[in-house]
From TrEMBL:
Catalytically driven reaction(s): sn-glycerol 3-phosphate + NAD(+) = dihydroxyacetone phosphate + NADH + H(+); sn-glycerol 3-phosphate + NADP(+) = dihydroxyacetone phosphate + NADPH + H(+)
Annotated positions binding sn-glycerol 3-phosphate: K106, G135, S137, K190, D243, S253, R254, N255
The organism of origin for this protein: Methylobacterium aerolatum
Main location (coarse class): cytoplasm
Compartments (UniProt record): Cytoplasm
Identification of the protein by name: Glycerol-3-phosphate dehydrogenase [NAD(P)+]
Keyword presence, Phosphoprotein: no
């Protein structure tokens, strides 16, 4: 059986995961949509645009040839959540013979309000195993071989364990679970809540406010997960609480940085700075799904309203502070 691994997507996270898979002992095919960018990365042995100064592992080959994806042991799909459907449609043929597909984006598809595993099941050939990788991880850390632990989920528990063993290396450790929905919710939801934490920082509301917000936001995430079949213990792990802690206070997080600029008075367009903040796309879908199941998510709703330009930070803060007092576990 082939031991090669595919990584689809040549951004910072895709490049970091390619380096991690190579460090775990596998030849890696890193696929980019742009042929010129792929040739440049292959020649320079560096992703100069997204990870300057980080050498591409010697076992990673950058390419734009879809035919190069065939025959791998597994494929990591590392593209933004909102482009996932299109990329899968483009590569469904080559990926049919490239092992399980591991989704590495964190989000919910706009328009359909679908979890990404459901999108993949719609587009990929019937029977293609789908897994989800999520957890507290910055691309710069992983690409440099700094210690990182994440979660891999697949409904086939044995396959989840096998894929985790396949991709784990000296410093990149994968824990496994069969709770796909819980891992997806943790990854998608924390992006929205990280924006809220950034807003608190940007508005100068203080560390006490940020700590309270993290706790209350996590309670929202737990309620949402229960309503959609995620297990509480999954949300307490790496892909939920761990990821929220990482991104709730670090400008390295695009979502936190986006929220920080919103809190400082920037418009949503200005705050984006031309960089993807996945939580900005996910907020409306998350709150829409929550309302459909009568799940209260006031923090996520506030973020969705701010991203849509429907309110301002001071109004949102006043509204949250005016909510009725209740038992903490309610």
């Amino acid at each position: 059986m082939s031991t090669s691994v595919n990584v689809v997507g040549g951004g910072a996270w895709g490049t970091a995961l390619a380096n991690a898979a190579a460090a775990a002992g596998h030849p890696v095919t890193l696929w980019l949509r742009d042929a010129e960018a792929a040739a440049r990365m292959q020649a320079q042995r560096e992703n100069a645009r997204y990870l300057p100064g980080v050498p591409l592992h010697g076992s990673v080959r950058a390419t734009a040839g879809a035919e190069d994806l065939a025959g791998a042991r597994a494929t990591l799909l590392v593209v933004p959540a909102q482009t996932l459907r299109g990329v899968l449609g483009q590569l469904a043929g080559p990926l049919a013979g490239a092992g399980p597909v591991i989704l590495c984006a964190k989000g919910i598809e706009r328009g359909s309000d679908s979890f990404l595993s459901a999108v993949a099941a719609e587009v990929l050939p019937a029977g293609t195993p789908v897994a989800v990788l999520s957890g507290p991880s910055f691309a710069a850390d992983v690409s440099r071989g700094l210690p990182t632990a994440v979660t891999l989920a697949c409904t086939d528990a044995a396959l989840a364990a096998s894929l985790s063993a396949l991709l784990s290396g000296p410093t990149f450790r994968l824990y496994h679970t069969d709770d796909v929905r819980g891992v997806e919710i943790g990854g998608a939801g924390k992006n929205v809540l990280a924006i809220a934490c950034g807003i608190v920082a940007g508005r100068g509301l203080g560390e006490s406010a940020r700590a309270a917000l993290i706790a209350r936001a996590f309670a929202e995430l737990m309620r949402f997960a229960r309503a959609f079949g995620g297990r509480p213990e999954t949300l307490m792990g790496l892909s939920g609480l761990g990821d929220l802690v990482l991104t709730a206070g670090s400008p390295q997080s695009r979502n936190f940085a986006f929220g920080q600029r919103l809190g400082a008075g920037a418009s949503p367009e200005e705050a984006s700075g031309g960089k993807l903040a996945e939580g900005a796309f996910t907020a409306a879908a998350l709150t829409g799904l929550a309302k459909a199941r009568s799940v209260e998510m006031p923090v996520a709703e506030a973020v969705a309203a701010l991203v849509a330009g429907q309110t301002d930070v001071d109004t949102v803060a006043a509204r949250l502070l005016a909510r009725p007092l209740r038992g903490e576990m309610d």
